[in-house]
Amino acid sequence: MSVVRIELPHCTYDVLIEPGALTRLGEVVRACAPHKRCGLLADPAVAQPWGELARQSLVRAGYGVAQVALEPGEKHKTLAAVERIYGALAEARLERRSPLIALGGGVTGDTVGFVAATWLRGVPFVQCPTTLLAMVDASVGGKVGVNLPAGKNLVGAFYQPVAVVIDPRVLGTLPARELGCGLAESIKHGVLGDPALLDLIERRMSELRGRDPQALAELVHRNVVVKAGVVMRDERESGERAHLNLGHTFAHAIEATMGYGELLHGEAVGLGLIAAAELAHRTGLCGAPLVARLRALVAAAGLPLTAALPDDEVLWAAMQRDKKVADDRLRFVLPEREGRVRMRDDLSRADVSAAWRAIRA
Amino acid sequence: MSVVRIELPHCTYDVLIEPGALTRLGEVVRACAPHKRCGLLADPAVAQPWGELARQSLVRAGYGVAQVALEPGEKHKTLAAVERIYGALAEARLERRSPLIALGGGVTGDTVGFVAATWLRGVPFVQCPTTLLAMVDASVGGKVGVNLPAGKNLVGAFYQPVAVVIDPRVLGTLPARELGCGLAESIKHGVLGDPALLDLIERRMSELRGRDPQALAELVHRNVVVKAGVVMRDERESGERAHLNLGHTFAHAIEATMGYGELLHGEAVGLGLIAAAELAHRTGLCGAPLVARLRALVAAAGLPLTAALPDDEVLWAAMQRDKKVADDRLRFVLPEREGRVRMRDDLSRADVSAAWRAIRA
Fold first, then answer.
1. Taking the CB of residue A295, how many other CB atoms lie within 10 A of it?
2. Which of A346, B86, B119, B302 reaches 20 to 30 Å from B145, CA-CA?
């Protein structure tokens, strides 16, 4: 069993990583958010068998469980979904001390987290991520929120869970394409803060893609440690936390212009990593071998290396709308070498266009 | 000029109370949230002349001002209004460091505050309350949020402003009925924490209702000190802050059943104060003179002493739905003597019904 403790100025919580952890969910929740009722908000795709396992564990721990089924997919990460959930919580008469448990992928965690941050001005929130992407990324850090028609994650909050429970067994039923998305964020974490994580992914790629539980547990643990370190040093993204956006200025523009759901988020991130490396290389920040290594890692993870991108004009406009624009200048996080990145806001449109060309099908 | 400093564990900000303060708004905002753009979100009822005064001050301080007109009234304190504002902010390309300034009454402050708490995961927020109610109550404490069909303030956050700017001059154009609402919350603050505030209101009632600027400034100052004290000791309402709900379990049920907007919030609070005092007296917590004094104060403020309430069943159900239900028990804040209240959750339905009778027309 592995526990990573997240210590922030105003709160502390544990990330528990353990095969079989879901069967202990009830006792974990009771230890940090005791109450007689709770809400279990699950993506129907994971409701069987994992949702039922979670529900039974909560019932054994003495909770009356109000279940709310979420609509799956990024296109339902909306204010409309949030409003529907508020209605269900009011209907179920959940109170200020009733914890809300999110069981699902990143969309579930982000949406339910935003509901938990705002329902009755904030209630206890427990994350049970069921995709590799959510385990290595969204489950740590407290960023919650939903999309607007004008852009991704424009509405949200910083809201920390009281516990994160990760059961690597659930990855056994995860589609291969979604496993690849988690690997994309893992590669990102390696590039920005842990060269040994890149080595691990290269060395054990076949075990990881074969769902070896030990390899996956080690992968998740290393990722959580990298991300937790960044978040503990900079919860509100005033500085270092922005490094986690490596590849994301490209990825968000890809998703915004190609439609959420066309490519999966992790696939867009994989493309964004390559584009960021190309841009870094083109501006003299890193050498060609790093670009080649990243491209090989993305390919080995089964992720696309190119996509049928729209025209430059369209992508440029989408990047301008992205919330990481500061004082009208586009800011990019670019790789310098394995384990080290740098912020740049002085890049020419020609360089950015060249980076887009490198991943255009 | 009077400045009340609010010191919380994670932030500090000033409440500035000064005739003419609005003309200095720009420099105040620049001192705590410098940026090249800001959003000025105003209730159209105060846009002339106060909105224009505020806008000019912000322009003089170097801000590009994106103006957003809000729909007035409690019935627009909704998620739909919030969504419309998000759209306007996206359109105006406001960024993470662009402050949002709320100019209006409590509905404006609560709604814009919730937008500020959640837009781009939180942006700087400045309160310019323009009603007496908002000056003495909503502008201090960081409670922001909107209503749902299922109940009042069910969605929200604790989100502190970076500054509060109060210009008592704006009360010169405030309708008399709304002035009375501010007096209701002032009476509440006197009962729960400052007997001298009750004396002040009794002694200077005619000056207050005649909009004497000095009397109003003194009133606002004393109220802000009472509320700030409570909030500084208990920001998240784990204990003492609940005292601020004096009269509100009744008031919220009145508003929920008679429809938001039928009675003004402060009018419902005035009725709630009388009901709470009756309930306290009936259960032996306070004597008859306190009940009589509160009734006289509410009457002298020009507030209604009774209303055409619905049946007990309907009111009871509405109280059950209110978010202050803890573990299915209704909790009331009741006056014990001037300056002191007590929490009670052991009251019989018969006693509560008698309290309702005391204010039923």
1. 18
2. B302
Q: Is B361 exposed, middle or buried (0-12, 13-18, 19+ CB in 10 A)?
A: exposed
CA–CA separation, B146 vs B243, rounded Å?
A: 21
Using the beta-carbon criterion (under 8 Å), do A120 and B154 form an inter-chain contact?
yes
Determine how many CB atoms are found less than 10 A away from the CB of residue A242: 18
B345 touches A: beta carbon within 8 Å? no
pLDDT at B260: 62
- Which residues, listed in sequence order, are joined to residue B102 by a DSSP beta bridge? B41, B127
- Residue B241's nearest CA partner among B357, B324, B314, B151 is B324
With a CB-CB cutoff of 8 Å, which residues 122-181 of chain A face chain B? 122, 143, 145, 148-151, 153-158
Which helix (H) or strand (E) segment holds residue B58: the answer is helix B52-60
Q: In the numeric block, which tokens belong to residue B244?
A: 């601020």
Helices A349-358 and A312-321 cross at an angle (nearest 10°) of 110
ipTM score of complex: 0.86
Rounded distance between C-alpha atoms, residue A70 and residue B145, angstroms: 24
Cβ–Cβ gap A118/B118 under 8 Å? yes
Q: What is the DSSP letter of B260?
A: B
Q: How many CB atoms lie within 10 A of CB B54?
A: 28
Nearest to B190 by CA among B338, B317, B85: B338
Backbone angles phi, psi at A12, to 5 degrees: -135, 135
Q: Residue A143: which of A158, A129, A133, A128 has the closest Cα?
A: A158
Give me the torsion for CA of B161, B220, B30, A328, rounded to 10°.
Answer: 40
pLDDT for residue B324 = 56
Q: What is the DSSP letter of A138?
A: I
What's the token pair of residue B32?
Answer: 């705590």
If one counts every other C-beta atom within 10 angstroms of the C-beta of residue A52, the result is 12
pLDDT in tens, A271-325: 999 999 999 999 999 999 999 999 999 999 999 999 999 999 999 999 987 755 5
CB contact under 8 Å between A150 and B79, yes or no, is: no
Neighbours of B88 (CB within 10 A): 17
Token pair of B129, please?
Answer: 């309350």
Q: HSE of A30 in the Cβ direction (CA atoms, 13 Å)?
A: 14
A294 and A305 Cβ atoms separated by less than 8 Å? no
Of the residues B188, B252, B281, B344, only one is catalytic, namely B252
Note whether B316 contacts A: Cβ–Cβ < 8 A.
Answer: no
For B212-232, letters b (16+ CB in 10 Å) and e give beebbbbbbbbbbbbbbbbbb
Pairing of strands A125-129, A163-166: parallel
A121 and chain B: CB distance < 8 Å anywhere? yes
User: Could you report how far apart the first and last alpha carbons of chain A are, in Å?
Assistant: 43
Half-sphere exposure of B80 (CA within 13 A, CB side): 6
Rounded to 5 degrees, what angle do the CA atoms B126, B129, B132 make? 155
Nearest by Cα to A11 from A153, A143, A146, A163: A163
What element of type H or E holds B37?
strand B37-42
What digits encode the pLDDT tens for the residues A313-357?
A: 999 999 987 755 555 678 899 999 999 999 999 999 999 999 999
Instruction: Please tell me which of the candidates A120, A143, A326 has its beta carbon nearest to residue B95.
Output: A326
Is A121 assigned a catalytic role? yes
B84-124: per-residue pLDDT in tens? 999 999 999 999 999 999 999 999 999 999 999 999 999 99
Find the helix packing angle between B213-233 and B176-193, rounded to 10°. 50
